[in-house]
TrEMBL record:
This is Ribonuclease Z. It comes from Halorubrum persicum. Gene3D superfamilies: Ribonuclease Z/Hydroxyacylglutathione hydrolase-like (3.60.15.10). Zn(2+) 1 binds at H61, H63, H139, D210. The active site is at D65 (proton acceptor). The gene is rnz.
């Protein structure tokens, strides 16, 4: 079951020739989710092959570099004869402004747009096998991040043990794995816990958007398979990071380390680092012992299950 993350926009408030404003596309086994939609996101979707078929858009906050791509994307979806509704999830108190933004160019979409305010701690999307929850972040306006967390999966099925207990090969294997007792060939009853191991965790993806480092983020991101964190500046501009309510690479690395995340992706890179953003990654690596990534626009990351190597 796939979980793929495509970085459509990894830059800060000012775009560069290499980095567009914030946008992140997640494909979870055919469910297509967009996190933030900076200017030019629709072009990035074409350029990097994600397609336009998103089902949900999760907005972190209403700064322009996170939302100015919404009117253009909505219009393009209409030109492509979209009929399915689109749900936009956003922080409390921002639905009215988002509604105005969608209609700012005098264009009424031919498909329904539902704007759903969701408070930190609440579930924005309760889907089959996973959910997306909002969590509070610390920026200069009302802001939040999102965590996509999958349900636990059934434990591993011990086929040799099932055969040893007299369960005939066939549909009864599936019933046992699904948690149902079955009858063996000798008439005895075989319980699932006799042949199925303990539940296995699903995957966890966390997107902070713009934020100062917060202990609450480390708690939310505990054991994340992929943490995508604001890393706008290097240590040399730590004062600027505090003044603008952003994080440095080292601060993002520290949060990832405290969360015991498996991988950290650094985004919202300031245009000041257009020539060389390596100091941000180097400093993050000094604080984080896991895998540290500085993705470019268009990079795609496959998120494996925690026990994929077992």
């Amino acid at each position: 079951m796939s979980l793929r993350v495509t970085f459509l926009g990894t830059g800060g408030a000012v775009p560069t020739t290499e980095r567009a404003p914030s946008a992140l596309f997640v494909n979870r086994e055919g469910d297509r989710l967009l996190f933030d939609c900076g200017e030019g996101t629709q072009r990035g979707m074409m350029q990097h092959g994600t397609g336009f078929g998103i089902d949900h858009l999760f907005v972190s906050h209403l700064h322009g570099d996170h939302v100015l791509g919404i009117p253009g994307l909505v219009q393009t979806l209409g030109f492509n004869d979209r009929a399915a509704p689109l749900t936009i999830h956003c922080p409390p108190g921002t639905a009215g402004d988002l509604h105005d933004l969608v209609h700012a160019v005098g264009h009424d979409p031919a498909f329904r747009i539902q704007i759903d305010e969701v408070a930190p701690g609440e579930v924005a999307l309760d889907a089959d096998g996973y959910e997306v929850r909002a969590f509070e972040t610390a920026h200069r306006t009302k802001s939040q991040g999102y965590v996509l967390e999958e349900d636990d999966r059934p434990g591993r099925f011990d086929r040799p043990r099932a055969e040893e207990l007299g369960v005939p090969v066939g549909p009864k294997f599936g019933r046992l794995h699904a948690g149902e007792s079955v009858e063996a060939e000798d008439g005895s009853v075989v319980e699932p816990d006799q042949v199925v191991g303990p539940p296995r965790p699903g995957r966890k993806f966390v997107y902070t958007a713009d934020t100062r480092p917060r202990e609450e983020t480390a708690a939310v991101a505990a054991d994340a398979d992929l943490l995508v964190h604001d890393a706008t500046f290097s240590d040399a501009m730590a004062d600027r990071a505090r003044d603008t309510a952003h994080s440095t690479g080292r601060e993002a690395g520290s949060i990832a380390e405290r969360a015991d995340a498996k991988r950290l992706a650094l985004v919202h890179i300031s245009s000041r680092y257009a020539a060389d953003a390596s100091p941000i990654r180097r400093e993050a690596r000094e604080a984080f012992s896991g895998e540290c990534l500085l993705p470019d626009d268009g990079d795609l990351i496959e998120v494996p299950f925690p026990d994929a190597d077992e």
